[in-house]
């Protein structure tokens, strides 16, 4: 099992994937791993609604993914979550 990098200088994104989907969708961005872990646990306990059509994300798989330098260069922090 790969160890999570808890000192990423670019931040973290919390993404979800519903059953039957291949790609992850970004739901939330944060600067620290501690905030990402707190959001991750919150989304697992109290599933939020989808931003596209408003259905409940109760069976979604949630993951914490470090933000890459290339994403920062592309302007990930300038756009909405």
Can you describe what's shown?
The protein has 81 residues and is of the alpha+beta class. It has helices spanning 33-45, 69-74; strands at 12-17, 25-30, 61-66. The chain is 23% helix and 22% strand.
Structure, briefly:
The chain is an alpha+beta fold and 81 residues long. The protein has helices spanning 33-45, 69-74; strands at residues 12-17, 25-30, 61-66.
Low-confidence stretches: none
> Strand order across the biggest sheet?
2-1-3
Q: Report how far apart the termini are.
A: 28 Å
Overall mean pLDDT: 89
Structural class: alpha+beta
Give the beta-strand count. Answer: 3
Q: Please, what is the oligomeric state?
A: single chain
Strand content: 15-25%
Radius of gyration: 13 Å
Pattern of helices and strands? EEHEH
User: Per the principal axes of the C-alpha atoms, what is the gross shape?
Assistant: globular
Largest sheet: 3 strands, antiparallel
Question: Portion of residues in helices?
Answer: 10-25%
Q: Helix segment count? A: 2
């Amino acid at each position: 099992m790969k160890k999570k990098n808890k000192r990423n200088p670019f931040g973290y994104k919390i993404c979800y994937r519903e059953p039957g989907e291949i790609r992850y969708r970004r739901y939330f961005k944060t600067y620290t791993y501690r905030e990402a872990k707190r959001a991750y646990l919150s989304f697992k306990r109290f599933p939020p609604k989808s931003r596209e059509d408003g259905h409940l994300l109760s069976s979604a798989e949630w993951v914490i993914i470090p933000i890459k330098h290339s994403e920062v260069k592309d302007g990930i922090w300038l756009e909405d979550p």
